[in-house]
Amino acid sequence: MSGKMNRIAIYRLLWHNDKLSEKRNPAFEQGIAAKVLMWIGALMMGGYMIFLGSLFGKLAAEEDIPPFILMIMPVLMLLDFFMRFLSQQTPMMFVRPYLLMPMPLKRVVEAYLLTQLGNTYNLLWLALFLPYSFVAVMGGVDLLTLLAVTVAGMLLVFINSMWYLLARTLIRRSLLWWLLVIGVWGIVFLPFILTITISDHVFDRFVDFMDFMDSPALLWLAVLVVLGVLAGFVLLNRSTQIRFVRQEMLTGQKGEKALKRVSNFTFLEHFGLMGDYLKLELKSIMRNKAIRTRVFMSLGLMVMFSLIITFTDIYDNAVMLNFWCYYCFAIYGATTLTKIMAPEGNYIDLLMTQRENILLLLRAKYIFHVAILLVPFVIMLPAVISGKFSLMMMVAYFLTTSGMAYFLLFQLAVYNKQTLPLNSKITGKSNMESGYQLFFELTTLFLPLLVMVALMFLCSELTAFIVLTAIGLAMTLASPLWLRNIYHRQMSRKYVNMEGFHATR
Predict the structure, then answer these.
(1) d(CA 90, CA 170)
(2) CB 411 within 8 A of CB 440
(3) 3-class SS at 458?
C-alpha cells in the first residue's frame, strides 16, 4: 500500500472493508435480522418525525416565527443523545484491524468520524426538517430563512453525534465522566430553567428572541457559528479517539491499576459447586469491564426512572406507570442475559469437561439474577411511598420478571455462540446485539406488558396483578424444569456452539 495514498482512496477502502467485515462476521445471518428490525424502527421513527415536522411547520407559519423548531432543539437533542446509546457505537472499534498495517491511524479515525456524521440515523433527521420547511413555506415564510433554519438544525444533529461519541468514549473509561454529561446538559438547559424561575411568560420571551433572529443574515451568521462548533467537536473527537486507541491497543492497557484486594465470598462455599458458579458471577462483574459496564448502565437507568416517577408527574397514567415499573425490574436481565454464555465462551472448553457443569452454571445464573431483583425493588420503594406504585404491582412485576422474562431470556443460552471479550471496552463488535438477541430482548420488555394491558381490559387492575403474580410464581417455581430443557437443547448444539465460540475469540 502506498504511503502517499490520498484520503479519499483510504476512506473508500475502509468503507469497502467494513462492508466485507460485516458479511464475514460469524453472526452475519443474525445481523441481517437485526438490520431488518432496525429498518422497521427507522421507518416508524421517520413517520413520527414527518408528523412532528409538519405540525411544527404549521405553528411556525401561524405564529410567523421561522426558527420555531430551533426553540425545541435542546429537548430533541437530549432525547437524541440517549437514543444513540441503543444503536450507535464508537468508531474506535473499527480501528483494530488497521493498527499493524502501513496505514495512518489518523486517517482511519477520520474516516470513521466522517462515517458517523453521514450515517443513516443522522440523515433521518431530514424527515423532521424538510416537512417543517415545506409546510412553513406553504404558509408564507421566506424560503431563504427556512433554508438557514434547516442547515442549522442538521448541524446541531451532527454536533450531538460528535458529543455523543466523545461522551461515550469517556464514559467507557470511567463512569465518573457521567458528571461531565450531566454538567453539559445542565448548562444547555440553564437558560430555560432561569426563565421559568424568573417569569411565567416563558413563551413570550422565546417569541421576542426568535423575532430578533428572524433576519436571514443573522440566521446564516448563526449557521457559521454552529459550523465552527461542529469543527471543534470533530477535532476534539479525533484527538481523543486516537489517544485512547493507542493507549488501549498499543500499550495493552498497562495503565490499569493492579487488583489489590481479592474477594473470596467464603459464605458461598457452603453451596458446593453451585456456590463456585455464584462466585464466578460476582467476580465477573467486579473484574470484567464488558460485563461491569452493562451492570452499571442498567443500575443507572433504574435509579433515574425511579427518581423521575417519584418526583415528577410525567408518567402519571396507568399504562406508563406499569411500563416503567416492569422496565426497572427487567432492564438488568435484558441487558446482561442477552449475552448469556457469551462471556463463558472464553473458557467454554473447561466447562464442557464434566457432565452437567453447564446445567449448574445456568441454575447459578438464574438464582443470581432473581436475587438481583431485590435491588430494583428497594430502589423503587420511594415510588411506593409517594403513591405512584402499589406493593401488589411491585410483587407482580418482580415475579413476572423472575418467571416469564427470565424464561424468555434464558432461551438465548441455546443459540448464543459468539464470545464476548471480557475486557473489551472500546474495540470489538461483540457488544452489539444480534438479530435474535434483539428479538428476545424486545419480546421480554413488551410481551408481559401486552398481557397486562389485555388483563386490565378484561378485568380490574388488582385482578390483573393477581393473575400476573400467579403466572410469574408458577414459572419461577418451574424453573428447574425449563432450565433442564434449555440444558438438553444446548447440549444437542454443543459442537456448533463451541465452534462459534472458538471462531469469535
Answers:
(1) 11
(2) yes
(3) helix
